[in-house]
Structure formats: structure tokens, C-alpha cells
Amino acid sequence: MASSGEEPRSGSPGRAGTGTEPSPTADAAQLDAAEDFEVLEEEEEEEEEEDLSELPPLEDVGRPPAPPREDAQPSEQGGGEAAEDPQEWLDVLGSGLLKKKTLVPGQGVDTRPRKGQDVTVRLKATLEDGSVVEENPALTFTLGDCDVLQALDLCVQLLEMGETALIMSDAKYCYGAQGRSPDVPPNAALTLEVELLGARDAPDLELLSGKEKIELANRKRERGNFFYQQADYVLAINSYDIALKVIGSSSKVDFSPDEEAELLDVKVKCLNNLAASQLKLDHYEAALKSCNLVLEHQPGNIKALFRKGKVLAQQGEYREAIPILKAALKLEPSNKTIHAELSKLVKKHADQKNVETEMYRKMLGNPRAAGAPGKCKDKLPWSIPWKWLFGATAIALGGVALSVVIAARN
User: Fold this and answer.
1) From residue 362, how far is each of 75, 175, 355, 357, 368 by CA, in Å?
2) Closest CA to 55 of 157, 179, 147, 146
3) Distance between CA 138 and CA 122 in Å, rounded?
4) Using an 8 Å Cβ cutoff, are 80 and 312 in contact?
5) Which of 59, 210, 288, 346 is the most buried (most CB within 10 A)?
6) Nearest to 117 by CA among 139, 140, 142, 138
7) pLDDT tens, 26-64?
8) What are the CA-CA distances from residue 177 to residues 26, 217, 315 (Å)?
9) Is 142 helix (H, G, I), strand (E, B) or coil?
């Protein structure tokens, strides 16, 4: 079982229906240059009902009550085929950035797939100049899990069984500002031709074998890695949370010790990457919880120690952060990133202590003057000490009081 998380891979370009990562150049642009721990890892929450991410819900489309009417007015004039029959285009999100037009009618509204189902579609994706960047005769994915391009995930919910539709999408719902090397340039709009071939309920997680559960969790985790490298940390967290729920689901199947160990390894990777994404969004409490969950399983996990130290430092808890980073450095003494972070925190902690000392001095006055009072320059050598004077006064008053009492009794 690996104690450290999985580094983002720089393999083949991500496809519309897969979760593989973009090119190495895009990877490097998205990761902090000064931090070699910017890796993705997710872990399942110990309490499944609690959402670690604390993020707003993902953008959702809902279901219109009926198919688009032919006399519906489009929000904007589309290009290409859109210009031929503008009345047939449905503005999916109301912003003009994602539109759908039916080419071949389906079998009725009741046959539309539901979120959580596994759907199979025929897909053809082209650029504005007509270049085909993807063709897949039978692409299968879980609807609503963001396993594919957002444009596809949102619009397939509106398809009827057997329907063929044309989808025109802004780059925002495709590959965004990063693009996909080498065939999809940055900020490229795509046209998708999609046919809904089938929809079925997703498999029961309780009945998955160890191998099947590991494969499913890894697919969700890798999709989270893709979104992380696209700097879409909200969707990355969503994918990591889904992977953790898969891992944490109850099972009616016995797993081998090796499968149990591999599931734990995937869980730790998910949690570490979840913490990295939460840090990017300044969700410090959630990131701290993710790090602590990793350390419960692997107290010597360097990435979790490093990120926990960073979280505490961001919260101004330098005294707690420094020993955690020292523990990480002890495990990997040659790591320059930990050295740099630790040096920075030690300096910040020293500055913080100086500020606190000055604040206390102003609150309490000059400590030297209070602790070692100097002699009064104009004090005469024959002057009576104030303690003696106070004692003499007290004795005199006592005598007067005693005389009054005796007189009263007489």
C-alpha cells in the first residue's frame, strides 16, 4: 500500500468520454510551480452522510415538461446548421451557450434517462471548422456524475430513447480555456452529434466484486484528476466525493486482503487530492478534515502532513503547523518544498511572537519599570521609609480606638 498519493499523469489527451488527463504542458500550468505535492488523492469520508466539500451544487438542468415547440424563439442565432431552422433549437441553460436541436425524434418524453443511470450513446464531436475530434459508436457513462463533457452530461438528460440530436456548446462546457492537446485548441466551441442508444440502472454497489469496485472508484478519481488539472476544483471535488462513496459503500461480497489494501490505497489517494482541491478553494476546515482522515490510516503520509501544515499555516496556527512540517521533513529530509515551507513558517512565527510581545508590553506598561523601580533622585537620605510610616500610623489609630472603648465602658 503506497503511503504517498498518486502524481497527476501526463499521458494521452483526455477524450470526451474518458477521464484521462490533458497534456503535460496543461498539467504544469495548473499545478503550483513551487509545490511538488500538488497531486490528486481522494479518500472516503468516515461519515458518508457528511459532505466534506461544503460546495454549492453543480449546475443542473432539470427536465422541461414537454419537448421544445417548433415556434419557440431561440436566444441567439446559431451558426452552421442552426441558421437553417433557428426555431428548432432549445436553449438548454437560457444563456445561449448550450443549445440542442432534434434531428431524429425519439420514443417519447417518458423514455428519457434518469440521473444515476448508465447510458450508452453514439457520439461525434467536431470543431467549428468541421474537423472531427472524436467519434465513439458506443460511449457508456453514468448520467449526472460528470464522467464526460458537461455539455454531453447536461443534454443527454433531455434526449428520448432513439433520439438523435445536435448539440452546440461553448468551450465553457467542453474543454474550456485549457483545450485538449493536440486536437482541441483552447476556448474551442464544439458541435456534438449524439444518439441515445440505451439506458439502464447502474449496478448495485453492494454486489460489486473487489476488482469492479476498485476499477469504478479509480475511474471517478481519474476524472477528478482531469478536472483538477483543468482548474475546475468544484467538479474535481464532486468526482472525488463520488469515488469515496463507492469505496465506502457496504458490500455483500467478500474481498481478498490484497483487494482491501488496494481499496484503502485508492481511498487515501482520493482524500489527499480532495484536500488539495479544497485548499485551492480556501475551504480550510474541510481540507483539514480530509488530511486528518488520511493520517488516521497512514500517520506517516507525507502529502497529508504537508497539506495539514499548510492548512494550519493559512489559519495562522504557526505553532501547530511547524512540528507537523518538521515531522514530514524527518520522513523526507531532502524535500526542498518542505524545507521552503518550513523556513517560511518559522519566520512568520517569529514575527508573530514579536508582535505579541510588543502588544503585551503596551498593555502591561514598561516591565522594567514595574519589576525594578529606580530610586527617586530627589529623595532625602533622612526620609522615613513609607512602610515604617504606615506601621506607626496604624499603631496610633489602634491606641486611639482602644482609649475610646475603655472610656465607653467606664
Assistant:
1) 65, 57, 11, 9, 12
2) 146
3) 5
4) no
5) 288
6) 142
7) 333 333 433 444 544 433 333 333 343 343 333 334 444
8) 10, 27, 32
9) strand
Distance CA 189, CA 183 (A): 13
Alpha helices in 69-190 (DSSP H): 150-155
d(CA 2, CA 276): 18
Query: DSSP per residue over 296-324, as a string?
Result: HH-TT-HHHHHHHHHHHHHTT-HHHHHHH
Distance CA 205, CA 214 (A): 11
Task: State the burial class of residue 225 (Cβ atoms within 10 Å of its Cβ: 0-12, 13-18, 19+).
Answer: buried
Residue type, 351: D
CA nearest neighbour of 181 among 239, 126, 133: 133
Radius of gyration of the CA atoms of the chain, in A:
34
| Locus of grid cell 419537448 | 67
The more confidently predicted of residues 266 and 398 is 266
DSSP H stretches of helix in 281-385: 284-297, 302-314, 318-331, 336-364, 367-371
Of 166, 167, 175, 250, whose CA–CA distance to 207 is shortest? 250
